[in-house]
Specification:
- The structure holds two protein chains of two kinds.
- By secondary structure, chain A is α+β, with helices and mostly antiparallel strands.
- Chain A has a domain at 156-230: Rod shape-determining protein MreC, domain 2 (Thrombin, subunit H).
- In chain A, 30% of the residues lie in helices and 26% in strands.
- Chain A contains four helices and twelve strands.
- In chain A, strands 1-2-5-4-3-12 form a six-stranded antiparallel barrel. Chain A has a six-stranded antiparallel beta barrel with strand order 6-7-8-11-10-9.
- The longest helix of chain A has 29 residues, at 2-30.
- Chain B is mostly helical.
- Chain B has one domain (36-174).
- Helix content of chain B is 77%, strand content 0%.
- Chain B starts with a helix and ends with a helix.
- The model of chain B has no long low-confidence stretch (mean pLDDT 83).
- Classes of the chains: A alpha+beta, B mainly alpha.
- Chains A and B meet through helix 1, helix 2, strand 1 and helix 4 of A and helix 2, helix 4, helix 7 and helix 8 of B.
């Protein structure tokens, strides 16, 4: 008993602190480290509104985005002339948000925005910036939100070739490259073609500029693949526009904290419309 | 130092632990930002890893592993809990403590940088192995990266993360080590 008492006297504080550290860490993990992000947002507040030093790059990207959008709109217009029951998508109210942090790990391509649920951002909102689509909001705290970039390998988006309307889906490749996998065996595609989000995507509104085809590998099995250069300069962006997603989120039985399973359910909703029917023209 | 001596042991403990916790918080903040000189091929230094190494260099393997566990859980919260960072960071903490550096090498800067270099490569490898296991488990879904992609990417980030982390390691290690040594000296003086 005495030995135990002596041991306890010596180690009680250390043990208590160790328990405190472990429980705090566990709490942070379960709350997606919301406290850390909120504090970070407060601390970086004075530095956020600084002018952008990469103005030239952004301007260039904007010109490119406009060009791509023009191509996309031209093609869409052509399609619309043939299609009569087209319903215009109402533009939703957009929130402009600064990027305050980059991803906290090398394996994930994420950014942290300096606006959160108090400003009206919800999980699933579409994030676009100068140059085109940037990603999707996967987590929000009162004043910050975390965005999964399109360049992340787990981020998959239904896309279409603007010129020939051939469909496929896009898988991030880190940096500002992505891989587009086609649903057709012999797609009509060549380097330089403009890629935009397809009208079958349930996560993104149709017609957002994504990027340009850099190279095509027709020999790839099971379907041809193309490397896409994303048009939004993801590593230089400082401000982005967040638009609430117009689509209904997938029904969830319980609130999920697990990012991976969120992604999976999203992915399924995004790709199921393509899967059963080969949408080949 | 004299001011610290006059404090009651409990206050000193409290200050010591808040300095430690504060340094962890600082690491987490810096992790999100990319200052000039902190980026190589889009990869920044692995600050939690540097902290775990700094903590474990002069401590027991269990203490090192515990610190790795705590920081790993927090980093999981900041990114995604699957695959987990606890495994790689706990391993790093334990191995760093097992090296028993202070017994063989007195010099601090370069040896710590070297340890961080090796540990950064190890940590990225552990995560890459977890990704590989995942992708072999879930072959049916194409949600996951292919093996070739994982290891190609691993090569790139392991090297840049190791270089940057080892170069930035002394920035964190030096002040923290000074502080812990000071506290240690005072405690020994009083007993």
């Amino acid at each position: 008993m005495y030995i135990f008492r002596r041991w306890w006297d010596r180690h009680a504080l250390t043990l208590g602190l160790a328990c405190l550290a472990l429980s705090t860490a566990w709490l942070l993990r379960q709350t997606q480290s919301a406290v850390v992000l909120e504090l970070y947002q407060r601390l970086t507040l004075p530095f956020q509104a600084a002018g952008s030093p990469q103005a030239a790059i952004l301007a260039n990207a904007q010109v490119e985005e406009l060009q791509q959008r023009l191509t996309e709109l031209k093609n869409q217009n052509y399609q619309l002339q043939k299609l009569l029951d087209y319903k215009a998508v109402q533009p939703a109210t957009a929130i402009v948000a600064p990027i305050v942090g980059r991803s906290a790990d090398h394996w994930w391509q994420q950014v942290t925005l300096g606006r959160g649920s108090q400003q009206g951002i919800k999980v699933g909102a579409v994030v676009s910036g100068t140059g085109g689509v940037v990603g999707r909001v996967v987590q929000v705290t009162p004043n910050t939100s975390r965005v999964l970039l399109v360049s992340d390998p787990t981020s998959q988006v239904g896309v279409t070739i603007s010129r020939s309307r051939h469909m496929g889906y896009l898988r991030g490749l880190s940096g500002n490259r992505a891989i587009m996998e086609f649903f057709d065996k012999v797609p009509d595609v060549r380097p330089g073609d403009v890629v935009s989000t397809s009208s079958f995507s349930q996560l993104f509104p149709p017609g957002l500029a994504v990027g340009k085809i850099e190279s095509v590998d027709f020999g790839k099995s099971p379907a041809p693949e193309a490397v896409i250069e994303l048009s939004a300069p993801l590593s230089y962006l400082e401000w982005v526009v967040v638009t609430p997603s117009t689509t209904t989120p997938p029904p969830q039985s319980e609130p999920q904290l697990d990012l991976q399973s969120d992604l999976q359910s999203d992915l399924q909703t995004d790709l199921i419309p393509f899967a059963p029917t080969g949408l080949t023209p | 130092m004299t001011a610290l001596l006059l404090w009651s042991p409990y206050v000193r403990q409290l200050v010591n632990w808040s300095v430690t916790a504060g340094s962890v918080l600082l690491c987490l903040f810096v992790l999100h930002s990319r200052f000039p000189g902190m980026e190589l091929l889009g990869v920044g230094p692995n600050w939690p890893l540097i902290w775990v190494v700094a903590w474990s260099v002069k401590r027991s393997p269990w203490q090192g592993a515990f610190a790795g566990l705590v920081l790993g859980l927090i980093q999981d919260g900041l990114t995604s809990p699957d695959p987990t960072h606890t495994l790689s960071l706990a391993l790093v903490g334990m191995l760093t403590a097992l090296l028993q550096k202070q017994r063989y090498v007195q010099e601090d800067f370069i040896s710590v940088a070297l340890i961080v270099f090796g540990m950064a490569v190890l940590a990225e490898t552990v995560i890459a192995v977890q990704f590989s296991l995942q992708s072999s488990h879930l072959m049916a879904q194409s949600t996951y990266r292919s093996l070739a992609e994982i290891w190609g990417y691993h090569q790139r980030i392991a090297l840049s993360s190791a270089i940057l982390s080892s170069l930035w390691a002394p920035v964190l290690y030096y002040p923290l080590n000074r502080w812990w040594q000071l506290i240690n000296n005072i405690e020994q003086m009083q007993t």
